[in-house]
Amino acid sequence: MAVVRMLFLTAIVLTGLTQAAEGENYLYQNIEATVLVVDPDKAADSLELWVEQTGGYTLLKSSDRVILRLPFERIPQLRATLRELSEDILEISPQSQDLREQILEAQAKINSREEVLKQSLALLDQADVQGTLAIEKEILTLIDEIEQLKGTLQKLNIDRTFSRAEISLRYLEQTLPENIPSSFDWINSVDFYSFIDQGFTREGR
């Protein structure tokens, strides 16, 4: 019974740590962007360094994609950073989800189960052996449910604190100009690379 009481007190303390404070952000912001860069690896490294300096972190980094978690108040700075690091922003799609209802629902469920848990603990001292076993089984079930709800609440609080940004990196190819045919047939038959090479060879003589 002492173990059950200890588990209950631990659940109460940890639940209090995951409570959302009033007046804070409740939006989960998610941005998907596609940018054109000259050097994808360098751009990915720069984004990773930038997000760490803002207090965020990198979930994934490759030569064609970077996924970041950053404090929600840094979203305007992310847009400015993308403009600085890229040749062009091909696409940017911001989305947001209000998590307030889900947070309040999770908190309400935790509170209701904690109340039932208190009532069950109060009955332990009055129950016989068979009743004690049944009550302890119910208590353990309630504690498990509280732990799961607490995990859900913690994830919601992380999502409202850290926005998510998925940035696709497109390589800016530097190619030779297309071979456009001339109206003079004899020019089309000339291999200009060989022609230029022969010219350099003659100058070297």
Provide the domain count: 1
Which ranges are low-confidence, i.e. pLDDT below 50, for 5 or more consecutive residues? 1-22
Q: What is the alpha-carbon Rg in Å? A: 31 Å
**Mean of residue pLDDT?**
82
Index terms:
205 residues, alpha+beta, 5-stranded mixed beta sheet, 21% strand, disordered N terminus
Short description:
By secondary structure, this protein is an alpha+beta fold.
Fold and architecture overview:
With 205 residues, the chain is α+β, with helices and mostly antiparallel strands. The chain has one domain. It has helices spanning 2-17, 40-53, 75-85, 100-124, 129-161, 185-188, 192-204, and strands spanning 27-37, 57-61, 65-71, 88-98, 162-171. The protein has a five-stranded mixed sheet. The termini are far apart.
Secondary structure elements and pairings:
Blueprint: H1 2-17, E1 27-37, H2 40-53, E2 57-61, E3 65-71, H3 75-85, E4 88-98, H4 100-124, H5 129-161, E5 162-171, H6 185-188, H7 192-204
Parallel strand pairs: 1-5
Antiparallel strand pairs: 1-4, 2-3, 3-5
Helix pairs in contact: 1-4, 1-5, 4-5
